[in-house]
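User: Hello! I'm new to structural biology and keep hearing that structure can be predicted from sequence alone. Could you demonstrate with Twin transmembrane helix small protein? Please show me the input and the output so I can see what each looks like.

Assistant: Of course. The first part below is the input, the amino acid sequence of Twin transmembrane helix small protein. The second part is the output, the predicted structure written as tokens.
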Amino acid sequence: MSSFTTILALIVMGLVVLVLIRGLFNMLKGTDANRSNKLMQLRLLLQAIAIALIMLTLWLTGGGRPS
């Protein structure tokens, strides 16, 4: 289970980076402020999910403590 959550956390972190880059490019173009705002809200949601998955992985693995 911890391998699954680790892989899932890495995927979500990758999505965070992609949404961040897309939002920054959209903001630099200056075309649609509403779209930039929605992308940054999505980034925030994905970051919260990534943090939750990282915490779940640490909890499942014992946080790196010896058993």
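User: So the tokens describe the shape?

Assistant: Right, they're a compact way of writing down the 3D structure. Reading them back into a model, for example: The mean pLDDT is 88.
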